[in-house]
Amino acid sequence: MKIALSIGHSPQDGGAVSTDGKWSEYGFWREHVVRVKEELERLGHVAVVCNRTDAGGTTPSFAAKACNATGADLAVEFHFNSAGSGATGTETLCFPGSKNGARAAGLIQAAMCDVLRLPDRGVKGVADTGRGYMYFKKTVMPAVMVEPAFAGSNVTDYDRLKERVAELCVAVARAIDKYFKEG
């Protein structure tokens, strides 16, 4: 199967910045998403790394366009959260009503929680005004958005993410593999 691995945000906007100031969401996942790709390919899948700038823009609609251009069977966009310093945990977003998106999100969410051992904030359907709504509305395949930790605002979450990112990437890839095998 083919999977679009979309790096959230863009080189221009970067997204949230890690608590130590070293990484933007974009920079962090640009560095690490290759591990997800390698594991998926080891498992026999085709994985394409893409970003909204590949489709000529910086908004979530362009992220969907970049994913759609790959011809993928599933799209996964990588982010990390930021809020008040007390916010913590792992969550995965999907489009309400997408049975396959919700199933993929559930498998990925469980895998991320198992590795990071942060509070499970669950799988969340995105409302019309919610985060990434246009990404979900415009992707033609089931799509999920991962937010493994509040790395932009919680030092503990960020430390856990950076210490376990290699294991996390493998776990996410294996959850995607499980999604297709259980299909």
Name the helicity range.
40-55%
Overall CATH architecture: 3-Layer(aba) Sandwich
Task: Supply the helix-strand structural class.
Answer: alpha/beta
Number of strands: 6
Question: What does this entry look like structurally?
Answer:
Helix 1 (25-42) links the parallel strand 1 (2-7) and strand 2. The chain has one domain: Zn-dependent exopeptidases (Aminopeptidase). It starts with a strand and ends with a helix. Helix 1 (25-42) runs parallel beside helix 5 (155-182). It has helices at 25-42, 60-69, 99-116, 133-138, 155-182; strands at 2-7, 46-51, 74-78, 90-94, 120-125, 143-147. The protein is built from 5 helices and 6 strands; from the N terminus they run E-H-E-H-E-E-H-E-H-E-H. The protein has a 6-stranded mixed sheet, sandwiched between helices. The model has no long low-confidence stretch (mean pLDDT 95). It is an alpha/beta fold and 183 residues long.
